[in-house]
């Protein structure tokens, strides 16, 4: 799934002070934990198993490691093709129809790529179970609080937040 397919989902970037403003309660708060370099992780339950996943706003399709795929009982098959920001092509198998759960989000992922992400992170990076992409949030409005959390909004919490926020485009020039 490409980012432009997620365009109907509203993404708002706010200062932490605004994100904590009083108002209607959102559907969920997903804490972000410092990971390695400038990356962050969040816990997610995929196929009934909880793991640690890097959160990447540039990731259109969630991926999991081969070890985590085995843990959830998935036998990867076929080939999915994607491209990194630098244009590097990535090919790998995938698992289909797994449930992905995070606070405020429960979504059946049509496809989850299976790929060993350790090679991208370098030898000093702690192990992770994969990367959560924006596909998990399709159909949800989220607020990103940089380095702190992902807030999964309800219509009421989003309306209250928007009353004090400045909407930013997902893609700029």
Describe the structure.
With 173 residues, the protein is mostly beta strands. It is 13% helix and 36% strand. The chain contains four helices and 14 strands. The strands form two sheets. Strands 3, 4, 5, 6, 7, 8, 9, 10, 11 and 12 form a ten-stranded mixed β-sheet that branches.
- Fraction of residues in helices? 10-25%
Choose one word for the global shape.
globular
| Amount of beta strand | 35-45%
Number of helices: 4
Q: What is the string of helix and strand elements?
A: EHEEEEEHEEEEEHEEEH
What structural class should be given to the helix and strand makeup?
A: mainly beta
The whole-angstrom Rg is 16 Å
Q: Tell how many strands the DSSP assignment holds.
A: 14
Characterize the main sheet.
10 strands, mixed
Give the N-terminus to C-terminus distance in angstroms.
22 Å
- What's the pLDDT, averaged over the residues? 84
What descriptive keywords fit this protein?
single chain, mainly beta, ten-stranded mixed sheet, four-stranded mixed sheet, 36% strand, globular, disordered N terminus
What order do the helices and strands come in, and which of them pair?
Layout (H helix, E strand, L loop, with lengths): L10 E3 L2 H4 L8 E4 L1 E2 L5 E7 L2 E7 L7 E2 L1 H6 L5 E7 L5 E7 L2 E5 L2 E5 L2 E3 L3 H4 L8 E3 L9 E4 L3 E4 L2 H8 L11
Parallel strand pairs: 1-13, 5-12, 6-11
Antiparallel strand pairs: 2-14, 3-4, 4-5, 4-9, 6-12, 7-8, 8-11, 9-10, 13-14
Quick synopsis:
This protein has 173 residues and is mainly beta. Helix content is 13%, strand content 36%.
């Amino acid at each position: 799934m490409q980012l432009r397919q997620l365009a109907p989902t509203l993404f708002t970037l706010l200062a932490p002070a605004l994100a904590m403003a009083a108002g209607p309660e959102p559907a969920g708060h997903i804490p972000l934990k410092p990971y390695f370099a400038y990356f962050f992780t969040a816990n997610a339950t995929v196929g009934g198993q909880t793991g640690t996943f890097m959160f990447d706003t540039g990731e259109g399709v969630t991926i999991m490691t081969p070890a985590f795929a085995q843990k959830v009982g998935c036998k990867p098959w076929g080939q999915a093709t994607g491209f990194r920001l630098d244009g590097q092509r990535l090919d790998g198998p995938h698992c289909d129809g797994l449930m992905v759960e995070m606070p405020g989000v429960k979504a059946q992922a049509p496809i989850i790529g299976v790929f060993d992400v350790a090679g991208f992170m370098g030898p000093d990076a702690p192990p992770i179970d994969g990367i959560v992409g924006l596909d998990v949030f399709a159909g949800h409005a989220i607020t990103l609080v940089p380095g702190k959390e992902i807030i999964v909004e309800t219509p009421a919490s989003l309306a209250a937040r928007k009353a004090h926020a400045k909407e930013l485009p997902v893609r700029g020039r």
